[in-house]
C-alpha cells in the first residue's frame, strides 16, 4: 500500500492524469459531436473531371492543389456548400479584382459545377449541400424566421432582405432573387464579409424559417408601395419632397389667387 501511495505522489502523475483526461475527452467528442460534412456519393471520375476543371480555371489564384496563394484562401476543407454557392452564383471564377466578388451569370453548367464540388470536397471535410427538405420554405415558420433574420441579418441585408451598403466599397446583396439553396449555403459558409452561422448558432430548422420569411418578401409589400424597402430613409424623402412640395405649391397657388 505504501508503494502504491508513493506512485500516486510521483511528480509525473499529474501529467499522466492530464493526458488521460484529454484522451478521454477527445474520444467522447469524436463519438458524440455532430459533423458538418455529410457523406455524399461521388465517383472517382467526377473527382478527376473536377480536378481538370480546377487546374484550368481556378489553380492560377487558389494554387495547383487548392492550398491557396498570397491573398487568396485555401479551399481545403471549405466543403461542398461553399464551392456550390460560389460557382453557381457566378462569383467564382472572378472576372476582375475588386472589393468583393459579385454575382454574375454562372460560368459552369450544373454538371461541371458538380464535378468541381466533388473535387474540392475530396480535399477535406466541410459543410455539405443542403437537402431539399432543409430548404423547403413550406416547412418553415416565417414569423420565427422574421425574428431570427432581424436579429442576425437585418443590420447588413435590410429588414426585408433588400440589401445594403457596407464599408470599403462592399455591399450586402439583395436576397429576393437568391435561391433557397444558396441562402442556406451562405449561412453555412459565410462568404466574403458575411459571418458563418453554423448549426450551433442557427439550427437547420431556424435556417429554413429564415428562408420561409425571405420567400414571403418576394410577394410584395402588404403596406403598399415598397419605396425600395429602405425603411424610414425613402419614406422620409417621400414625405419631404412630395409632401412639402405639395404644401409649397398650394401656398403659391393661394398667393397667386389672392393677388
TrEMBL record:
It is found in: Cell membrane. The chain crosses the membrane at residues 237-256. It is a multi-pass membrane protein. Residues 1-30 form the signal peptide. Its main location: membrane. SUPFAM superfamilies: Cytochrome c (SSF46626). Keywords: Cell membrane, Electron transport, Heme, Iron, Membrane, Metal-binding, Repeat, Respiratory chain, Signal, Translocase, Transmembrane, Transmembrane helix, Transport. It is an enzyme of class 7 (translocase). InterPro entries: bc1_cytC-su, Cyt_c-like_dom, Cyt_c-like_dom_sf, Cytochrome_c_Oxidase_Subunit. It catalyses: a quinol + 2 Fe(III)-[cytochrome c](out) = a quinone + 2 Fe(II)-[cytochrome c](out) + 2 H(+)(out). Its EC number is 7.1.1.8. Residues 45-124, 140-218 form the Cytochrome c domain. PANTHER family: CBB3-TYPE CYTOCHROME C OXIDASE SUBUNIT FIXP, CYTOCHROME BC1 COMPLEX CYTOCHROME C SUBUNIT. The cytochrome bc1 complex is composed of a cytochrome b (QcrB), the Rieske iron-sulfur protein (QcrA) and a diheme cytochrome c (QcrC) subunit. This is Cytochrome bc1 complex cytochrome c subunit.
Amino acid at each position: 500500500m505504501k508503494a502504491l501511495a508513493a506512485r500516486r505522489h510521483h511528480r509525473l502523475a499529474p501529467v499522466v492524469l492530464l493526458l488521460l483526461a484529454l484522451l478521454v475527452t477527445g474520444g467522447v467528442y469524436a463519438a458524440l459531436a455532430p459533423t458538418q460534412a455529410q457523406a455524399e456519393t461521388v465517383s472517382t471520375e467526377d473527382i478527376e473531371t473536377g480536378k481538370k476543371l480546377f487546374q484550368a480555371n481556378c489553380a492560377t489564384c487558389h494554387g495547383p492543389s487548392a492550398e491557396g496563394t498570397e491573398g487568396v484562401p485555401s479551399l481545403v476543407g471549405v466543403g461542398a456548400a461553399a464551392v456550390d454557392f460560389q460557382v453557381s452564383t457566378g462569383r467564382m471564377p472572378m472576372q476582375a479584382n475588386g472589393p468583393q466578388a459579385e454575382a454574375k451569370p454562372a460560368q459552369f453548367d450544373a454538371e461541371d459545377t458538380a464535378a468541381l464540388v466533388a473535387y474540392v470536397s475530396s480535399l477535406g471535410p466541410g459543410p455539405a449541400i443542403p437537402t431539399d427538405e432543409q430548404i423547403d420554405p413550406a416547412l418553415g415558420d416565417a414569423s420565427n424566421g422574421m425574428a431570427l433574420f432581424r436579429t442576425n441579418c437585418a443590420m447588413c441585408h435590410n429588414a426585408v432582405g433588400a440589401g445594403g451598403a457596407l464599408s470599403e466599397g462592399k455591399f450586402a446583396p439583395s436576397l429576393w432573387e437568391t435561391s433557397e439553396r444558396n441562402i442556406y449555403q451562405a449561412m453555412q459558409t459565410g462568404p466574403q464579409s458575411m459571418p458563418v452561422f453554423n448549426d450551433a448558432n442557427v439550427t437547420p430548422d431556424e435556417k429554413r424559417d429564415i428562408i420561409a420569411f425571405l420567400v414571403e418578401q418576394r410577394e410584395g409589400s402588404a403596406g403598399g408601395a415598397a419605396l425600395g424597402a429602405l425603411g424610414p430613409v425613402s419614406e422620409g424623402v417621400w414625405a419631404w419632397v412630395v409632401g412639402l412640395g405639395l404644401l409649397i405649391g398650394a401656398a403659391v397657388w393661394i398667393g397667386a389667387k389672392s393677388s
